[in-house]
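subagent[fold] <- orchestrator: predict structure for attached chain, return tokens only, no commentary.
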Amino acid sequence: MISLKPITIDNLFEVIKLSKTLDLDQQKRVADNIVSIAQAYVHYDTAWPRAIYEGETLVGFVMLNLKDEDIPKEDQPAYFLWRFMIVKPYQNLGYGKKVIEILIQKSISEGQRYLYVSCEMEDKMPYAFYIKMGFIDTHEVFDGEEILKLKLDELKPHQI
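subagent[fold] -> orchestrator:
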């Protein structure tokens, strides 16, 4: 069973080491977890960093921005999926989908209208993954990444 747990002194260094499980191409496209954790510390009032576990096994890292002011006012309130990585041995096994479903449920339960994400377009992944999950391409680019969004209030329970 997938769960999202806070980053603590007990799992901090394990989460940091996860970045090295990615292949070199992925490492170039995904921020190192130590950078993400530092950003979470600096943005402690809006960052929501979590370790992803399958049972007791650490399989990834995810971080939301709970108050992204770059999201258009007409789409607020909205969360932004700031960081997301699954360790290489656990990729393509459905863990990413389960994490997105947990984030969608969290977002809906907390009254959000949209969940945003951005990704580079050098490779078909993760763009194809997000499209398959129901995100739509806004055709806007920020900092070299394509912006996608998922309208939460139109989701039916069977779609999550």
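orchestrator: received. Logging for downstream: The domain at 2-159 is CATH 3.40.630.30 (Aminopeptidase). The chain has one domain: 2-159.
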